[in-house]
């Protein structure tokens, strides 16, 4: 999607600040940045995907900011815009290729939870939770399947018109937008329930912060997918900044956790030796 000549909203930095504030609690148990930690992070396929997604949306931000000015061929800004566009498209295609079979766990979860969803609970709020959860999973699975069809059209395996692949992918993104909208509603309800539990004196162990972070992530994804699917176009700079924020959240979720430090204890063999107990006592 090309950049639009709309003024970039002033709330981009504020959105990133809110996302960063909510992510601070999640960073408490993460390991420090090092070559070994970064290598462990890259050993996960999801980690590589989310890092590539961050770069992809950074490139979209550059495209959006560059598009706010008149681009003249031969200028440095025009060249930067072309380079960022190519990076964005190539990373999007690569990530779409590696998205195959991700629908299997979602479909498996739908099949496993379907008997529970079919039962009618007495509590209407529980029934609403089940319906929303099922709707979120179904729309997510639909997005993944339609996205595969769009990819097959792009590589000419399936026939279609000139923009058949792009149009199919945009259709799938509409389902992904709906999935994130439902996910945001679910997280807001969980946030409300967590607040009620805290008022009743029940410990939540950061449940409110986690629900707020997930709700913000889903809301930002709704903004992104509405733009990418052309359901509601805004601005590439805004969408790029939102994509960087959600990608940073995903990177943190894949980052290796800090290992618990082993408690120092005196060696049993040393204690068995003469004078070992006295040395251990002095060490204390």
TrEMBL record:
Locations listed in the record: Peroxisome membrane
Residue span of region Disordered: 263-284
Keyword Transmembrane helix: no
UniProt protein name: Peroxisomal biogenesis factor 11
Main location: membrane
Cellular component aspect of the GO annotation: peroxisomal membrane
Keyword tags: Membrane, Peroxisome, Peroxisome biogenesis
A GO biological process held by the record: peroxisome fission
Top-level taxon: Eukaryota
Keyword Protease in annotation: no
